[in-house]
Write a structure and sequence with these properties.
mainly alpha
């Protein structure tokens, strides 16, 4: 989908306003958090539009949040952003060459086996990560672990352009809003509220992109072998 000129204009004006407010101290915002807000909002909007530029912008967004979460002692979220950077490069490639005969990847649904495998891994990983984060003094071990695993699952589905990624992002974003608000990261909490709205738009938009020939994806193992 093409990004309309008025949409681009709104993004540019909004970004400049935030940068100016943070730079002049009119707004009580740090520059790192501001950069994370802007690149995050633009990246998700481009994902809704199925625009390939969401990947390089998303990679930059993750780099900003690595620094932000380190300062907030949200260690799992910091590590998550590093993984996002890696998955960002994979998603960039998959969207361009992940379709049949290395063509552009289209929106599809995840198969039942894929969802079952991801759910099983998710439950086990959340439990293990909660125990680890509690041992290292994480600020919110269970919620940090849960949102980390949900986000990784959603990001994998997104790299394969599977529509179920939106349902998981919606769940994670609701939790994130409360978590970041409790840590005093109010702009980041507002960003995730914006993400929540964009996820709802993305779900509706991607549903319209589905066709009968693209209704079901390949199994998880087959999809993973596609990058070898």
């Amino acid at each position: 989908m093409m990004v309309k000129r008025w949409e681009l204009l709104v993004m540019v004006i909004g970004s400049l306003a935030l940068f100016l407010g943070a730079w002049t101290k009119i707004l009580p915002l740090g520059m790192t958090e501001t950069l994370g807000f802007v690149t995050g909002a633009v990246g998700v909007w481009l994902t809704v539009k199925e625009n390939i530029w969401n990947w390089p912008i998303g990679i930059a967004n993750s780099a900003f949040f690595v620094a932000l979460f380190f300062g907030a002692h949200l260690f799992a979220d910091m590590a998550l952003q590093v993984i996002y950077i890696i998955l960002g490069f994979l998603g960039w490639y998959w969207w361009l060459r992940g379709g049949r005969n290395q063509s552009t990847l289209h929106v599809s649904r995840a198969g039942r086996m894929t969802l079952l495998i991801l759910a099983t891994i998710g439950v086990i990983a959340t439990g293990g990560l909660t125990v680890f984060l509690r041992s290292v003094g994480d600020a919110a071990p269970f919620l940090d672990a849960l949102t980390t695993i949900l986000s990784l699952t959603a990001q994998y589905l997104l790299t394969r352009k599977l529509i179920e990624n939106w349902y998981i992002w919606i769940t994670a974003d609701i939790i994130y809003i409360g978590l970041y608000g409790s840590r005093g990261l109010y702009l980041t909490a507002a960003l995730y509220a914006l993400f929540l709205g964009l996820c709802l738009l993305g779900l509706r938009s991607w549903r319209n992109s589905l066709t009968p020939n693209q209704s079901t994806s390949q199994p998880l193992i087959v999809a993973a072998e596609g990058v070898r």
